[in-house]
Amino acid sequence: MTNPAEKKESKVYSQRSLENSTLIVATFTSFIGPFMISAVNVALPAIQKEFSIGAVMLSWLATAYLLATAVFLVPMGKIADIYGRKKIFSWGLVIFVISAFLSIFTPNAVILLILRIFQGFGAAMVVTTGMAILTSVFPPEKRGRAIGIYVSAVYIGLSIGPTAGGSLTHHFGWRSIFLTVVPLGLASIWITAKYLKGEWKGDKEEKFDLKGSIIYGISLMALIYGATLLPDVWAYCLVGMGILGFIFFTIHEKAIQNPIFEVRLFQNNHLFAFSSLAALINYAATFAVTFILSLYLQYIKGLNPQSAGMILVFQPIVMAVCSPEAGKLSDRIEPRLIASAGMGLTALGLFMLIFLGPATSITYVISVLVTLGLGFALFSSPNMNAIMSSVEKRYYGIASGSVATMRLLGQMLSMATATVVFAVLLGNVPINPSNYDIFLQSIRIVFIIFTLLCTVGVFLSIARGQLR
User: Fold this and answer.
1) Where exactly are the structural domains of the chain?
2) What percent of the chain has pLDDT over 70?
């Protein structure tokens, strides 16, 4: 007969095993998405050459994945809260792996586009539930470190994606990128089925708000697609439609009993609202930095793409190394203090970029990238910990989907800001020695905007209130 001590030890071992399995699966899946995005973007010229497609179709192959992910994040989070997060997570993995596998054999660009939409749909199911399951499994005193490792895997995927994608495309063709993620996906499915016992859900009696989902999806598509077309006149129309759609969505959600998104979280939960807005601002102020510096290093400093990539990789490496420790620190110290310090460091790094010029040393650029990497690591994991810990368990899916949506919106806003400034000052002309001075003026204006935006984010981050 098992004595109480053995029962307790068995329970502790079972909990530890569940935590480890969840962390492994969450880490795999948080790596796959960013890796797929950055690796496929590098392979787009090879895809264009094979299928003989135009620039519009090519851009859709990149945009379709992001749009599908963004549109389904919040609805899938709500469905997972009702019917079970593990169930939606598992089906998301299956859809993602099957669509990635089929992409290896795709005969034309149209089928590849459809498969990219399914990949985005599967990714949305995985992303919105992975963080929710991680938060459900890990107790508050261990949660920050686990989230830090999760975030670190995202940065690793982003950092090695371009290099690995370029190498795979060069040696084995662009289809090998999709083949690479299949084993990781299959391993995640196997670990989920074998080791993730139990289920995590909120209130199964709630009903799914289909009308709200449709309004949300159309509004988000208009907003994100409009941002990609800026500064075209139609872009402003689409962005305006998206904003109006979200106003109507908010009114609708407040009026029904079982909303797809609990708008009152933003109204009544000060910590959740300010942490989410801080995340939006942080991504809006930082995402375009790599894009702009890549242009600066190649045009102004005369580096080749490979050398520029070797310099730019300093930022994600610092993020990947420091994120787990920052998350772990937020388990002991109030997250808002660490996140605010991280946002402050990020603002400092952006301020340093205002002074870039032809004579700026590469050492200076690297020091800025290290500063930004450290700032983002200190902000992201503690901020995510604050968001997920500020809501009830039944809202984990919604909270996870919301913060992922904030990330995507911030990324789009960041690129839209850079695009509009370049379009106004440079116009629709190639960057060449005759307009290098205007190009440098453009990037200074962009970094001034980003610095001011991030400074506002520091005050929002401080004002969020105490978690503990």
Assistant:
1) 13-206, 209-259, 264-468
2) 93
